[in-house]
Amino acid sequence: MMILEMPKKEFGTMLGQLFATGLTTLVQMPSSQALSLAFSTFFPSLVQFLQSQKSFLREDHPLPFFKEVELRLAAESARADVTNNVTASVIKPSYGPPDLVHSWQVLKVDIRNLTTTVNHHFDYELDGHSRKYSQICLSNKTGWQVYLIRKSDGFKIPFNALHGISLIALLRMDLLPEMKDMLYDMFVRLPLYEDMAPWNVLFQGGKLTYIDYDTKDVTFNKMVPAAYQVMSMLMNYQRTVSDFGHCNGNARNPYGFPYISTCVESSFDGPCKVDNCYSCLCHKQQSVGYFRTLLSQFHVGTIHAVPRMLSVYEP
User: pTM higher than 0.70, yes or no?
Assistant: First the structure.
């Protein structure tokens, strides 16, 4: 048996954090009758203060002070640094003879409305992720709804029932080499998606599956073989544009990819409101398309100088 001693405030915080981690939390605990009898036995002076006459008969318990003590535990003790609304009920054991009195029961706590701030993935600090989400949990007696609101752009990401564990969590459990090799073999057999970071891959039903909500509907198996040619094309195109004297600076992209932001410098200083900079209007990333868009604004043979390479979408 583990005996846990902590100040009342810390105990309340522990309970609150426990209840806030799931839509339903079940806590096995002594019954109100057992607690009342225990206090009468081990703290008689306290019981005498609560009630003038002491009794050790089971049918005389719980004392009035201990009635529904399980529900009061949830209502009066639990504290959490989140916005939440919960309901609590007591489940009594149903097995055994009808007259059997159990010394324990289960406190059932249901989240009805919870809003909390969550991070990008398990142990996100190790990967330098700073992205935040608001997690919203709503439930009633007939159903539940859980979703995320991405704070950077307000995008809503619904929670589906995922019966598995993320690949990033598995890899950080210090797996046996054989298990790690098995997962690697599964990973390299997956289709190619845009964001195959380990927090977007789930081990489910004995296999790996890709779950990133934003990008799970598009694969790149047919495009990847041309990646080398595309990069070569952009590099050589940039060289010729530079020789014409029209490459006066580069735009930025969040991952520092070469060539895709070349020669399209913008005076816009950010931040972009979306993560996918190819769809961000602050500086269009498709260099070749930009060159052609810019040149189409001028008539061939005119003496107008081509302006400095600013994004056509510059605000």
Answer: no
